[in-house]
Amino acid sequence: MYTNKQIWSVSYPILLSLLAQNVINVTDTAFLGHVSEVALGASAMGGLFYICVFTIAFGFSTGSQIVIARRNGEGRYSDVGPVMIQGIMFLFVMALLLFGFTKAFGGNIMRLLVSSESIYEGTMEFLNWRIYGFFFSFINVMFRALYIGITRTKVLTINAIVMALTNVVLDYALIFGKFGLPEMGIKGAAIASVLAEASSILFFVMLGLVALSALFPQFLLSIYTSEAALITESVPSVYVICCAMLIASVANVVFNGISGTGNTQAALLLETITIIIYGSYIIFIGMWLKAPIEICFTIEIVYYSLLLITSYIYLKKAKWQNKKI
What we know:
Elements: H1 4-32, H2 37-73, H3 80-113, H4 117-130, H5 134-149, H6 154-176, H7 185-204, H8 206-215, H9 217-221, H10 228-260, H11 264-288, H12 293-296, H13 298-317
Helix pairs in contact: 1-2, 1-6, 1-7, 2-3, 2-4, 2-5, 3-4, 3-5, 4-7, 5-7, 6-7, 7-8, 8-10, 10-13, 11-13
């Protein structure tokens, strides 16, 4: 029997993930309320329309979630992946169709719901950008279904926070023209919401973050310093770290697999070996050769590569199946 505490620990992240989409709409409305009454009404109507369409995808993801949870409970873990892939493909096609439908008939639908010409124009300005979020939010609900189905719901808490904070910052920046960005009003709120949903996808996928860092290193570095020379000199290091993180995303999974076998002594041994090589490498490269900083950062590539190789060899060659706990 599960305790109330255990049930709550699984349930509250689900609650937060449900609130995340509504937080985006509330944030848009709150910021636009300081722009004008027309902007306030337009975002409210546009947000309502968006939620109505989003509910279609959410309903489908619930069905997928049931199947994923069933397969997980049955121990048929290899069947979870196909459900996830098929769900994503189906919802992407659905997003494409609903995007086209809204482009073609959204104006006619809003004409029936909005009598004020100024609010109608504002709503359409909002929707013309907001509906790009279909492609992100529809995929997001499948990731949500996956993590609920396999009872890894704490991931959803972090994701909800990332999405909400991204939306708040971008709303402020794009609606009012802060941080050097243009003042875009209603359109800015829509774009901010789309980018917030895109950030959710990036959170679920560790490759997206690396690509963002590699494509816009100067922008990311400018968060920490305004010195142009320092930013320029730091860019090569960012590229090196991006390569290391791609290896790390695989190496950590394989290494954790060793701990999953119960042989924590082997995990400690492999970690010790890699740390010794790690320390020796950085002393030689950094302190002896006094290499440039980007060369020193290649230690991360060496470390995760060694961790990946040694972990793979252990899982492939060692007789860990006979380990008794």
